[in-house]
Specification:
heterotrimer; B: two-stranded antiparallel ribbon; 78% helix; C: mainly alpha; globular
Chain lengths: 129, 495, 299
């Protein structure tokens, strides 16, 4: 039992990331409001980045910026996850922008943000499901 | 000279990026010319890479920069990658040519060039997915592909496409989110991102029994993510609206190419990252097999129930994606071969169907099956091409579709425990396919007394040329399938 | 006159979907469609069976969704439970890859900021793709929101704040500082924390603040659509071409003309500084462009 809690403590950040991911995922699935869905997607992305960042951290080491020309590998954390997260953030910003633009279009046409209502209206408009 | 061909994947990718940016500055017509020539040039470059691959007979690892794996980004290409890239570029060219008539109507005047920007970006992401040797690069280009396909879809702005695009984006983003999570887990337990290093690390960990749960989950997440993005059952619900309400050229590109790009990446991952032993030993493949089989049946039944012909074709796409994953899940050798052959078949056939359906819909003045009565008499070329595409989907001999069904049946014998199930699924889906496609074909060839003005060949020259070429590709690969199969076999061994 | 609602009430309303912020912001911009077009005449009567399916599905949906969410969480928890410990040395990620980045990163790339070295040199292809993701998003939003050039449309959009003296005064003090800081972050990207993406975002924020405070038309005298496009696209071209050159040289074992220089100097680290500048331009343009498109439907 003690081993179990020890391991939980060892992977506390990934567990936090998973819980955050769950919050985002459930928001995305359960809310019918498009803006809230988009918020949910963003939370999911953030959770993924949290987990990725946690792999770059090594206790007692500095951030990966060389200080005074000292390139001892035991001094610095891993620069790769930070770079990947940077890429990921830009991707999620772009995706959010596109989703929000889609929302603006939908709102302009149907005057609603509720996907069910929009769906019903679209069905009426075109006749077929 | 041939040694220089090794640089061509890099050149084709950079050329696409440059052209995409250039098209944003140009007027619509110039952008169209640039994009069409880009597709042509990329096809030629891909052919050269294919020649290079055949010449060397080995896969080439091409570092992007001064650092080899596991430090720097890399491309990797043998025979299958350039072949797939070649097919993608050619089909995209033919889609853009063949859909010209509707594109002229559907594109808003001020935004014509933007459509071609999106086409170039889809092409570059497909090339990158085919050539990449790095899973994170894969993720970045998956996202480019998602956004650019949303753009292709949205260029025709009726309420229905906006809704479809929103759904498509949400499904797609869940897919890429899961894929990213899988990549992150994989990175967490191996510390690698380049495919060859990942493969070695995974094999070592699997042998040692370390981090098995994490490895298995990462594998599942990546597979599920790609499956959602390519529209495997039960995540196929975004497909009908997405394909059915966009302009025919976009529908062709989205259904024929984009979903295939993701599937090809999965095939690459199975061979290049997970390793066939781990992938097939762990049971992830069986999940794909089951969902593939369900997808085939459900997709075909939904298609048979559909009254809107465009939506019917879209549901049939869901069934074809089912075939792909069915094959991947079946066996690593023949099953995979059947899957990749089917990938090419579908990439060639579905655009033909969508383009022809677009023409027929115009001739009939409606989208529903019962309005299509006699449409083939008004537009003979489109009727002929639609029937040919449908025959290939059903799997009538001499078409490519027949060969891929035959390959699936051969693969079934490689796994005797599942032989009966596999054959039953194949038979049922063939019967269903024949049922719903023949119903449309009989409908469009029904003689009708009232004859509206016929389309002359002159009016639809672009469509006639491109659909003829697509049909020729289909038939030639169907008649002389053996060389292609041999090529793919060699390609798979190099993946 | 309605009583002003407390924050708590507004939050509750927002959660219940009753309080719709978009109505307040976007309402006047998008008048309600006059009437939805009639159903086409040839449409068949709605499929009663399908409607029934749909209703059942809708009732079952929350339960199914919650189950799916729960399953995913349990699955992921089991997966991460197996991960190596957080913050410890010697985990799988602390391997030869990270070792070379840290040990040789500065000599090989010339960048003191190792993250900049990794994303702009070792893994530059990812970053090339990433800046084109931004470009793709910008074009997608253009497709979605760009309005046709029409002189009748009010140039100033809807969210125009009255030219409030507090806002304009604050902006006239802040904008130069923000832009200057953004430039510093970009140009210092290879030496310390920062780089093209963060600096570009800061400059973009500065431009947005300027547009909000003084209106778009004043910014447009300096940065119109033509120059905006050319600057952004030239930056992307420079990025692609220079990286193509360096990839080509790298793969064929040739020497590039860019050398790492003396690490720590402002003019060092070969291509990283110009690439950071290009990325900064792209990001700033994209941020401002997105804001402007959302605000009034054109750049």
């Amino acid at each position: 039992m003690q081993g179990f809690w020890e391991q939980v403590w060892n992977v506390r950040i990934p567990i936090a990331a998973v819980l955050l991911f769950a919050v985002g995922f459930v928001t995305l699935l359960l809310h019918r409001n498009l803006l809230k869905k988009i918020i949910g997607l963003n939370i999911m992305d953030t959770a993924a980045y949290l987990m990725l960042t946690s792999f770059g951290y090594i206790e007692g080491r500095l951030s990966p910026i060389i200080q005074n020309g000292n390139t001892d590998p035991a001094l610095y954390g891993n620069p790769l996850p930070a770079g990947l997260v940077l890429t990921g953030i830009v991707v999620s910003v772009s995706v959010t922008a596109v989703l929000l633009a889609l929302t603006v279009r939908l709102y302009a046409r149907y005057h609603s943000l509720n996907l069910d209502e929009i769906y019903a209206m679209a069905q009426k408009e075109h006749g077929l499901g | 000279m041939i040694a220089f061909f090794v640089n061509f994947p890099l050149f084709s990718i950079v050329l696409c990026l440059l052209c995409a940016v250039l098209c944003a500055l140009l007027k619509g017509k110039a952008a169209r010319i640039v994009s069409l020539s880009l597709c042509g040039v990329v096809a030629v470059l891909a052919f050269c890479v294919l020649v290079y691959g055949l010449q060397t007979g080995a896969a080439t690892e091409y570092p992007m920069g001064h650092y080899p794996h596991p430090w720097g980004n890399e491309l990797r290409f043998g025979i299958a990658e350039p072949l797939v890239a070649l097919v993608f570029a050619v089909v995209m060219l033919l889609c853009l040519i063949g859909g010209k008539q509707q594109l002229d109507v559907d594109l808003e005047p001020g935004k014509r060039n933007l459509y071609y920007v999106m086409c170039d970006l889809v092409l570059v992401s497909l090339l990158a997915l085919a050539y990449t040797n790095d899973v994170f690069t894969g993720y970045v280009f998956i996202e480019i592909c998602t956004i650019a396909s949303c753009g292709l879809l949205m260029i025709r702005q009726i309420g229905r496409t906006t809704l479809a695009a929103t759904r498509y984006m949400i499904f797609s983003l869940i897919g890429s989110g899961l894929f990213l999570l899988g990549v992150i887990l994989l990175y967490g337990v191996t510390g690698q991102l380049l495919m060859p290093s990942l493969k070695a690390a995974i094999a070592a960990l699997w042998e040692g029994g370390q981090y098995r749960t994490a490895l298995l989950s990462a594998m599942t997440l990546m597979t599920v993510g790609l499956a959602i993005k390519s529209g495997l059952f039960p995540f196929h619900l975004w497909m009908p609206d997405t394909y059915a309400y966009s302009t025919p050229a976009s529908a062709g590109i989205l259904s024929g190419l984009v979903s295939k790009g993701y599937s090809f990446l999965l095939i690459k991952l199975v061979f290049g990252v997970f390793g066939t032993d781990v992938f097939y030993g762990s049971g992830v493949s069986n999940v794909l097999y089951v969902f593939g089989a369900l997808g085939i049946i459900v997709g075909s039944i939904s298609a048979a129930r559909e009254k809107d012909v465009f939506r019917m074709i879209a549901f049939s796409s869901a069934a074809q994606i089912g075939y792909l994953y069915f094959g991947i899940g079946l066996t690593p050798a023949l099953g995979m071969l059947a899957a990749i052959f089917h990938l090419l078949t579908h990439a060639v056939t579905k655009p033909l169907l969508f383009l022809a359906a677009g023409q027929l819909g115009e001739a009939a003045g409606g989208r529903l099956r019962h309005t299509w009565r006699g449409a083939a008499h008004r537009n003979r070329t489109a009727g002929l091409m639609f029937s040919l595409g449908a025959f290939s989907m059903i799997g009538i001999p001499l078409t490519m579709g027949f060969v891929s069904k035959y390959r699936f049946a051969l693969a079934a014998f490689e796994r005797p425990t599942l032989l009966v199930v596999t054959l039953i699924v194949l038979a049922v889906s063939t019967v269903l396919n024949a049922m719903y496609f023949m119903r449309v074909i009989i409908g469009i060839y029904t003689p009708v007394p009232e004859r509206r003005t016929r389309m002359t060949l002159r009016e639809q020259r672009p469509f006639a040329v491109s659909s003829l070429l697509l049909a020729l590709l289909n038939l030639s690969a169907g008649v002389a399938a053996q060389p292609l199969v041999l090529l793919l076999e060699r390609g798979l061994s190099l993946l | 006159m309605e009583r002003k609602r407390s924050l708590k009430e507004r939050l509750r309303d927002w959660d219940a979907d009753a309080f719709d912020l978009t109505n307040e912001i976007a309402g006047p911009m998008h008048p309600a469609p006059a009437a939805l077009p009639e159903r086409p005449k040839d449409a068949e009567p709605e499929d009663a069976l399908a409607a029934e399916d749909f209703r059942v599905l809708r009732r079952a949906y929350p339960i199914l969704a919650a189950l799916l969410g729960l399953m995913t969480v349990v699955f992921l928890l089991v997966a991460v439970f197996d991960l190596p410990p957080f913050g410890a040395a010697g985990t799988p990620t602390d391997n030869e890859v990270a070792l070379r980045y840290v040990r040789d990163g500065m000599t090989e790339t010339g960048a003191v900021n190792l993250v900049a070295g990794v994303i702009l040199d070792y893994r530059a292809f990812d970053t090339l793709g990433e800046s084109h993701v931004l470009f793709t998003a910008l074009v997608a939003v253009l497709i979605l929101l760009l309005k046709a050039e029409d002189p009748a449309i009010d140039d100033e959009g809807t969210l125009t704040l009255r030219q409030d003296r507090i806002v304009t005064t604050a902006a006239s003090i802040l904008v130069p500082i923000i832009v200057l800081f953004g430039l510093y972050v970009i140009l210092n990207g290879h030496l310390g924390p920062g780089g093209g993406f963060s600096g570009g975002a800061i400059i973009g924020a500065g431009l947005i603040l300027y547009a909000v405070a003084f209106g778009f038309s004043r910014l447009e005298t300096k940065l119109n659509l033509g120059s905006f496009r050319i600057i952004c696209l030239a930056a992307l071209w420079f990025y692609s071409l220079s990286k193509c050159y360096s990839f080509f040289c790298g793969a064929n074992g040739l020497h590039t003309v860019f050398s790492p220089g003396t690490p720590g100097r402002i003019l060092s680290a070969g291509l990283i500084l110009p690439l950071n500048a290009a990325v900064g331009i792209v990001v700033a343009c994209t941020m401002y462009g997105l804001f402007s498109l959302f605000q009034r439907g054109k750049i």
